[in-house]
């Protein structure tokens, strides 16, 4: 089975890594807005139902799968080599996510450095990037000249009827940070300050991942925990602002009528699916470094619950400030609320600029956002590295070769991200985000559940898990729950979301901008690229080798864990590593029942069904 695989120093490192992987930027900018838009407190009902029916079962399936085989997301498909393309799809999706995700971290770093001043650059409109429509609270656009003669070029400007202007923070983001062009086909050249921030981000990622989980396991103590300190500080500050109650009421007041809207349930399912980082290969990769007998059942409930509670907590932080902004402007919360990056880089900075000691709070906020981003990016990039290192063991023959490979992955990530750091890069970033986070993840998740539970077999997979954690009293009842979800509820729910998205499919657009034909083609090509490995490998391997089954060396990675049907003695005298029905209980060398500590494997030797629950 090869050399001994690296392992986490203790279970806490794995838990913190999974928490950091799951808790990312989307917890701050996506969940609070979805809850607000979809019925406030009522949104928690479909959200937690989807957590129980989809999130937790998929999380358990992936970390149990990875821990059992101690293999990365590509090589693990020796369980059925016909489906190895599923592993390639996983790391392709993870690679695509990493490209745009690190660029967003670069934006956070840009704002972090820009905040290191006594006066934030988006606090007023007296800058060369501001237009005549800039609004910093000092302009009255009902006047013929809102600037009162301060800007000569605005004396003849044709102001739109009933305009209230454009927020100074929005102009800073779009005209200073991004210098955004007028369309997808106009790149506008590389934006070097953003590019340097992107290079810094990839440099940090390389340093942290240079020794794999040896360094990652230590860094997560900071990146997974410290954001909670900053979130708490920002929440305390938010609760001292005027109007905070208005924001929190809008965020949490339940609108039960929304529960009859199918899109609300779809949003809840998609949010759970994405927020837990399922089906990207990352959970398999991180779990592959666990000790064989690590309690995955405990981790399965702990990490998703922490992730969901963090999303809820972040909502209070965000909407306390939105309530303050609404009261200061004399408008309602819906008029200032936005979702996605606009919430983090436009709306929230506007609120920060109105606080006393604004630069301090801005530094803390964007440092928190960068830390949240890095905690997810480390695991995403390590997923790609682990998958390729496992698949191509020649890369691991020396520590310098491994270091060079890791450097090459990070450098490739930086170079491939350059189109997103041009002045038209925001269009490409949005396109890639929508492409890799859409159908590819959903199809990978659906096929993964079907393959493990129907092709490999639920009962066989159940016994594999029992081999790791035993069949204690708390384990057996859980399999009734997980069995129902894996065999029926989760695949049907994923299939329903896929169908719902197919029905709702429209040409790609963002904030009212309809992408040109070239953008639409690239959008679909990215999705096809993420998925083409699945049918491509299936056709190639079936033509070459025939229909697949687990290889002879499938099973626990370490020899001391290869008991029962995975024992060396058994595999030496069976054909092609295939196992008879009673392989759990018979020592094939002695032809008599084995004695195992795990009594799940002591069964009647006359029973040949091999499908006992």
Task: Describe the model.
This protein has helices at 11-22, 25-29, 31-37, 44-69, 84-114, 168-177, 192-209, 213-223, 226-238, 244-252, 262-275, 282-287, 296-329, 341-353, 358-391, 399-416, 425-436, 439-469, 475-504, 517-531, 533-545, 568-572; strands at 134-135, 166-167, 509-510, 513-514, 586-587, 592-593. It is built from 22 helices and 6 strands. β5 and β6 form a beta hairpin. The longest helix is centred in the middle third of the chain and has 34 residues, at 296-329. Helices cover 60% and strands 2% of the residues. The protein is mainly α. α18 (439-469) runs parallel beside α20 (517-531). The protein starts with 10 loop residues before the first helix and ends in a 20-residue tail after the last strand. The chain is globular, with a radius of gyration of 26 Å. The strands form 3 sheets. Strands 1-2 form a two-stranded parallel sheet. A two-stranded antiparallel ribbon has the order 3-4. It has a two-stranded antiparallel sheet with strand order 5-6.
What distinguishing features does this structure have?
613 residues, mainly alpha, two-stranded parallel sheet, 22 helices, 60% helix, globular
The portion of residues forming beta strands comes to under 5%
Let me know the number of strands.
6
Run of helices and strands: HHHHHEEHHHHHHHHHHHHHHEEHHHEE
Structural class call reads: mainly alpha
**Can you give the helix content as a percent range?**
55-70%
End-to-end CA span: 30 Å
Rough outline: globular
Strand order of the largest sheet: 1-2
Largest sheet: 2 strands, parallel
If you average the pLDDT, what whole number results?
85
Number of helices: 22
Rg on CA atoms, Å:
26 Å
Unreliable segments of 5+ consecutive residues = 573-613
């Amino acid at each position: 089975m090869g050399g001994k695989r690296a392992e986490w120093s203790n279970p806490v490192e794995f838990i913190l890594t999974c928490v950091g992987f799951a808790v990312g930027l989307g917890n701050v900018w996506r969940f609070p807005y979805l809850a607000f838009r979809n019925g406030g407190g009522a949104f928690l009902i479909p959200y937690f139902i989807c957590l129980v029916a989809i999130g937790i079962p998929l999380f358990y399936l992936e970390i149990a799968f990875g821990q059992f085989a101690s293999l990365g997301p590509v090589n693990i498909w020796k369980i059925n080599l016909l489906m190895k393309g599923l592993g390639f799809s996983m790391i392709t999706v993870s690679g695509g996510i990493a490209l745009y995700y690190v660029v967003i971290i670069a934006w956070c770093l840009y704002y972090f450095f820009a905040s290191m001043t006594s006066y934030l650059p988006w606090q007023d409109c007296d800058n060369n990037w501001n237009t005549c429509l800039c609004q910093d609270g000092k302009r009255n656009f009902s006047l013929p000249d809102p600037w009162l003669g301060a800007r000569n070029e605005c004396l003849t400007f044709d102001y739109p009827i009933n305009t209230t202007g454009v927020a100074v923070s929005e102009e800073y983001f779009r005209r200073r940070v991004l210098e955004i062009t007028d369309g997808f086909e106009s790149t506008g050249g590389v934006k070097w300050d953003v590019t340097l921030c992107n290079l810094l981000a990839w440099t940090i990622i390389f340093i942290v991942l240079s020794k794999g989980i040896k360094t990652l396991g230590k860094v997560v103590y900071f990146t997974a925990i410290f954001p909670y300190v900053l979130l708490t500080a920002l929440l305390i500050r938010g609760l001292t602002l005027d109007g905070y109650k208005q924001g929190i009421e809008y965020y949490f007041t339940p609108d039960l009528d929304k529960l009859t809207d199918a899109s609300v349930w779809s949003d809840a399912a998609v949010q759970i699916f994405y927020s837990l980082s399922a089906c990207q290969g990352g959970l398999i990769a991180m779990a592959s470094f666990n000790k064989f007998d690590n309690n995955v059942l405990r981790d399965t409930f702990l990490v998703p619950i922490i992730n969901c509670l963090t999303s809820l907590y972040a909502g209070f932080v965000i909407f306390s400030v939105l309530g303050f902004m609404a009261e200061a402007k004399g408008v309602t919360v819906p008029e200032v609320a936005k979702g996605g990056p606009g919430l983090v880089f436009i709306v929230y900075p506007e609120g920060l600029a109105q606080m006393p000691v604004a630069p301090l709070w801005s530094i803390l906020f964007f440092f928190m956002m960068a830390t949240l981003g890095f905690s997810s990016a480390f695991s995403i990039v390590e997923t790609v590295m682990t998958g390729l290192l496992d698949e191509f063991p020649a890369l691991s023959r020396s520590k310098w070769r491994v270091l060079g490979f890791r450097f090459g992955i990070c450098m490739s990530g930086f170079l491939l991200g350059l189109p997103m750091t041009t002045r038209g890069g925001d269009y490409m970033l949005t396109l890639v985000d929508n492409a890799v986070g859409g159908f590819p993840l959903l199809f990978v998740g659906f096929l993964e559940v079907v393959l493990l539970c129907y092709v490999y077999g639920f009962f066989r997979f159940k016994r594999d898990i029992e081999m790791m954690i035993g069949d204690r009293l708390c384990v057996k009842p859980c399999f009734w729950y997980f069995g129902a979800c894996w065999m029926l509820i989760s695949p049907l729910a994923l299939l329903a979301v896929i169908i719902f998205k197919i029905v709702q499919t429209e040409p790609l657009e963002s904030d009212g901008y309809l992408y040109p034909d070239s953008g639409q083609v690239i959008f679909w090509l990215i999705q096809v690229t993420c998925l083409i490995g699945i049918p491509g490998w299936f056709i190639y391997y079936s033509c070459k080798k025939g229909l697949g089954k687990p290889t002879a060396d499938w099973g626990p990675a370490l020899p001391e864990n290869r008991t029962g049907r995975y024992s060396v003695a058994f595999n030496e005298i069976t054909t092609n590593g295939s196992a008879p029905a009673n392989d759990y209980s018979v020592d094939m060398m002695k032809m008599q029942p084995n004695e195992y500590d795990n009594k799940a494997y002591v069964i009647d030797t006359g029973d040949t069904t091999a499908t006992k629950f």
